[in-house]
Amino acid sequence: MTVTTESVRSALEQTPEQVRVESHLHPVGSYDVADHEVPTGREEIWRFTPLKRLRCLHADAEFMRPATSATWNTPDGVRIEVVSGDEARGLRGISGLVPNTRWAARVLAEVPASLLVDVPAETEVAEPIVVDLDGTDVLVTEAGHVALRFGAHSKAIVVLNHTGSSTVAAVVEIAVGDGADVTVVSIQDWADDAVHLSHHQARVGRDASYRHAAISFGGDLVRMDANVTYDGPGGSAELLGLYFADAGQHIEHRIFADHTAPRTKSNAIYKGALQGEKAHTVWVGNVLIRKVAEGIETYEENRNLVLTDGCQADSIPNLEIETGEIEGAGHASATARFDDEHLFYLQSRGISEQEAQRLVVHGFFNDLIRKVGVPSIEDRLLTTVEAELAKNVLKGGVLGTGA
Asked: Which positions fall inside the SUF system FeS cluster assembly SufBD core domain (predicted)?
């Protein structure tokens, strides 16, 4: 069945207890742009974001003709194309998204076309589907809508690779059919001047498996929301994140696992490193366990490694629980400098201080990188981490030991 914007609106009116999100971190949504006021920065969901650096994407910036090119490979059996008209409108809401921000409501209402990646039911795609999005003009404020649709019992990996200079607001909707096995990797490797405001919304079908990896290195300001809801029992979601902020960068990741069905699972692991004056990272995690969601399992974890003075890492995990009939729920958060014992152990075996620091950082990220599950991406991430370390660690600019 095709889910249209009209059908989602109808569901919102008929079953508010299932669709409306009663969470202090997620205001009730609306498709009507007029229902969303322009943020001031005092709102809970905006208080960490430097709004002046968003170039009005959060408010009423003109959505200009796109200056970001999109290219992709097309494996056998997969449909990938830009669609418009009725077909594009029919894709709005395939994830069950009801926008709770002005900018996302504007994207759904005003952007005339959608990039569709459609994997039919029972199709197993052997190679990753890679969509390269390359920005060419940071002065152009633009917006996009991407729909990733995976049929029942399909299996596929989609990589969204962001490079170049751009000022873009993007909504990515993911519909994971019953029994499907899906991985979505979003890499933000922008040029230093880019601004990227994005919302990823996934709906996971019965007994389906969904993995989402958010990887942010480049850009002046990157903010990504990664949300998931469930269409039936047995669905599982793994939310992974890796980020490395340099001087002046603001990188913000927010996750929301909304357990809307019983016997579902969610597991979130985000790790970040910071170096350079005024490097700022934000991670806000939230899990809502509804009354209907009995027998669920969830855990969220965020860890940050501060490499130089002048950095700030904000980390806020949240659990909202409406039923006590659950298998398990927990969270963990830590922000620290290098561990004295780790460095001492390595140096006592003849390894130099700088090389010891390098090995500790690689060890910090390595287990998470291996969880991405795409060998070519894993190799690229290891190389990128090494390049980031060269800016400070390998030049001796890292903090002394101690947390």
From this structure: 143-364
164-186: pLDDT as tens digits: 999 999 999 999 999 999 999 99
In the block, tokens 């049929």 appear at 151
**Residue 15: partners with Cβ closer than 8 Å, 6 or more residues away:** none
CA-to-CA distance for 40 and 38, rounded, in angstroms? 7
Instruction: Report percent pLDDT > 70 for the chain.
Output: 88
Alpha-carbon distance of 265 to 371, in angstroms, equals: 17
CA 79, CA 62: separation in Å to the nearest integer?
30
Give ∠ CA 287-289-291 in degrees, rounded to 5: 165
What span, in angstroms and rounded, lies between the C-alpha atoms of 308 and 286? 29
Q: Are strands 265-274 and 312-321 parallel, antiparallel or unpaired?
A: unpaired
Structure tokens at 378: 């894993």
**Residue 343 confidence (pLDDT):** 66
119-153 as b/e: b if 16+ CB within 10 A: beeebebeebbbbbbbbeebebbbbbbbbbbbbbb
- Are the C-beta atoms of residues 370 and 364 closer than 8 Å to each other? no
Above 50 in pLDDT, residue 190?
yes
Res 59: pLDDT: 97
d(CA 259, CA 236): 10
> Residues near 3 by Cβ (< 8 Å), separated by ≥ 6?
93, 94, 96, 175
Amino acid, single-letter form, for residue 62: E
For 128-169, what is each residue's pLDDT tens digit? 999 999 999 999 999 999 999 999 999 999 999 999 999 999
Helix (H, G, I), strand (E, B) or coil at 212: strand
Residue 110: helix, strand or coil by DSSP?
Answer: helix
Are the C-beta atoms of residues 347 and 354 closer than 8 Å to each other?
A: no
> What value does the mean pLDDT of the chain take?
89
Backbone Cα Rg of the chain: 21
Query: Which residues have CB under 8 Å from 145's CB, separation 6+?
Result: 88, 91, 92, 107, 108, 111, 113, 114, 115, 170, 171, 172, 173
Q: How far apart are CA 208 and CA 230, in angstroms?
A: 9
What one-letter code names the amino acid at 396? G
